[in-house]
Write a structure and sequence with these properties.
heterodimer, A: mainly alpha, 9 helices, globular, B: mainly alpha, 2 helices, rod-shaped
Chain lengths: 245, 58
């Protein structure tokens, strides 16, 4: 079992496996995303309270969900890297950070563009907004640690610990709208209740969320391949592979 | 519904379309930046190999 994991998670094996998966993730992300956009912009009805401005939801919510999902991937990979010394896991964590940061940023800016017409302000120091901003800073901190420490193993240890400690922020983001009085509206989609949303709005939202996840899957594979090439630059498999590139 | 009404977004055009445009930019950047990174890494490794070969000859 252990040998099997070791071989399966070898960067060399990953490098050739991932090449097969990337086109599938990319194409399905594109198709589902386009269909979701079509439904969201043309089919979904106008909101009775927020008018057309609510259409920002089809970007904002998938981006926010993704920023938290990617963070969890990063933290779990960091645990695997720290505890079992699986190098591929550290590469996945390092590859996830810039992707997660970009989507946390997107969630914050689209949120502020939605907040201005609805709340009258681009920004308020509210629990949901502040905790999402902290998430962005955690990503940036992870990336700063990665690039500041020359020795790769120490860099992975330090940034991995930051990622793991920062997990405490994820439930805070999630429950912030229930724990504190907030301007931010409550959850629209929950596991246990019927969603408080028209089905023609819900479907494009879920499609966009799925498209974002598939996009992340493609991106994390592409970036992890880069990490593998760079970190194994002195190993034989990279040296043999690089001749043909 | 006609197109000018569609782009007008019930008066929220600026907020809605800026959001979508930014999302597009972020998607494109996420695609381009690892491609650039890959080129840089490959070039760097090739340079290193060249240097090593020179060192071995002398």
């Amino acid at each position: 079992m252990w040998n099997w994991i070791q071989r399966f998670s070898s960067p060399k094996h990953f490098y050739s496996m991932s090449a097969v998966l990337i086109p599938w993730f990319s194409i399905s992300a594109l198709l589902i995303g386009l269909y979701g956009l079509y439904l969201g912009l043309f089919v979904a009805p106008t909101d009775y309270q927020q008018g057309e401005s609510y259409r920002i939801i089809f970007i904002h919510v998938p981006a926010a969900w993704m920023s938290m999902f990617v963070y969890m991937v990063m933290a779990v990979s960091s645990v695997i890297g720290l505890v079992w010394q699986i190098r591929l896991a550290d590469m996945v964590a390092a590859a996830s950070a810039p992707i997660g940061a970009s989507f946390a940023f997107l969630a914050l800016v689209t949120g502020s563009l939605w907040g201005k017409p609805m709340w009258g302000a681009y920004w308020v120091w509210d629990a949901r907004l502040t905790s999402e901003l902290i998430l962005l800073f955690l990503y940036l901190g992870y990336m700063a640690l990665q690039s500041a420490i020359d020795d790769q193993r120490s860099a992975d240890k330090a940034s991995g610990l930051l990622a793991i400690v920062g997990v405490v922020n994820i439930p805070i983001i999630h429950y912030s709208v229930e724990w504190w009085n907030t301007l931010h509206q409550g959850a629209t989609v929950t596991k246990f209740d019927k969603p408080s949303m028209h089905i023609d709005m819900l479907i494009p939202l879920l499609l966009m969320a799925l498209a974002f996840k598939l996009f992340y899957a493609a991106l994390v594979l592409i970036r992890t391949r880069n990490e593998a090439l760079y970190r194994d630059r002195n190993r034989r498999w990279v040296r043999e592979l690089i001749k043909d590139l | 519904m006609n197109w000018s009404e569609f782009f007008h977004m019930g008066g929220y055009a600026f907020f809605v379309w800026t959001s979508y445009a930014l999302a597009f930019v972020i998607v494109v950047l996420n695609i381009v930046s690892p491609m650039v990174q890959r080129k840089k890494i490959i070039a760097r490794i090739k340079r290193a190999i060249k240097r090593e070969n020179l060192d071995n000859r002398t």
